[in-house]
């Protein structure tokens, strides 16, 4: 699987992280501002933001001493397009299957 | 999305029985997909195993083998880890053709994949803006 889209899927698999994205769609926020919306520790929020950043669904900008989190909505586009995702997924799997089956056949002929 | 489906067909220079083994036996699945916990059996759950980002063993794809009609048809429910348990349906069809096997994959049932769509709805205004920007860029 493509590393980029896999990271985005991982980030989206958690309901708290999806809620964070919705909050960030309203405006950019610091970690403290994000944390105000959730009944979890600031450390836990920070971990979620790191995973979102790794999935490239948000970007982090330094403004003075603050770290500002911004939604990168463009990164959601390939994730929302399930058909093209699975189309590529099966395309590459089935090519691998063809190679494996035909290698097996060649070996059994010898 | 309810009518959405993926259909893929490949021709394999091997008998249907050989192709069937590659779809159902753990060590053969490992050669092109991921190793299964055990050989697949009708009515039983299956899981194809890999590793998480931290290197811990984890199920990557899993579901139930709903139907097995050796060596011509198999139906799975199917999900992958990032889908958070939402199930889709995968059907494998094997047909005899001259010199080999025609293998067809049908992947359907994308209606349960709700999470990203909820998110899309919530982000809808952002998308409208993005799309209008895109149209404006196209018009240039």
Short note summarizing the structure:
Chain A: GO terms for molecular function: DNA-binding transcription factor activity. The complex is a heterodimer of chains A (110) and B (140). Chain A is of the alpha+beta class and 110 residues long.
Jot down its keywords.
heterodimer, A: 110 residues, alpha+beta, 6 helices, B: 140 residues, six-stranded antiparallel beta sheet, 4 helices, 6 strands, WH_DNA-bd_sf (chain A), DNA-binding transcription factor activity (chain A)
Descriptive overview:
Chain B: It comes from Hoeflea prorocentri. Chain B: This is SRPBCC domain-containing protein. The complex is a heterodimer of chains A (110) and B (140). By secondary structure, chain A is of the alpha+beta class. Chain A has helices at residues 3-12, 15-26, 31-36, 42-54, 77-80, 82-109, and strands at residues 29-30, 58-63, 66-71. The longest helix of chain A is centred in the C-terminal third of the chain and has 28 residues, at 82-109. The mean pLDDT of chain A is 85. Chain B is built from four helices and six strands; from the N terminus they run βααβββββαα. In chain B, α1 (16-24) crosses α2 (26-32). The chains are: A alpha+beta (110), B alpha+beta (140). At the A-B interface, α1, α2 and α6 of A face β1, α1, α2, β6 and α3 of B.
């Amino acid at each position: 699987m493509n590393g980029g889209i896999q990271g985005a899927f991982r980030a989206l698999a958690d309901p708290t992280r999806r809620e964070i994205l919705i909050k960030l769609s309203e405006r950019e926020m610091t970690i403290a501002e994000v944390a105000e919306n959730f009944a979890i520790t600031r450390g836990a929020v920070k971990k979620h933001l790191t995973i979102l950043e790794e999935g490239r669904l948000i970007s982090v900008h330094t403004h003075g001493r603050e770290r500002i989190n911004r939604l990168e909505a463009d990164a959601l586009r390939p994730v929302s397009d399930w058909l093209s995702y699975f189309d590529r997924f099966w395309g590459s799997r089935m090519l691998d299957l063809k190679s494996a089956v035909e290698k097996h056949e060649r070996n059994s002929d010898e | 999305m309810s009518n959405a489906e993926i259909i893929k067909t490949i021709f394999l220079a091997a008998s249907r029985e050989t192709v069937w083994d590659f779809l159902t036996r753990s060590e053969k699945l490992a050669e092109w997909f991921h190793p299964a916990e055990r050989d697949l059996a009708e009515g039983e759950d299956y899981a194809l195993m890999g590793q998480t980002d931290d290197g811990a063993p984890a199920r990557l794809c899993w579901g139930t083998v709903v139907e097995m009609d050796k060596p011509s048809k198999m139906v799975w429910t199917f999900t992958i880890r990032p889908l958070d348990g939402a199930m889709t349906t995968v059907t494998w069809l094997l047909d005899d053709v001259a010199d080999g096997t025609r293998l067809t994959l049908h992947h359907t049932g994308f209606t349960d994949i709700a999470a990203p769509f909820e998110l899309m709805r919530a982000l809808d205004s952002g998308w409208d803006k993005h799309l209008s920007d895109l149209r404006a860029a196209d018009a240039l």
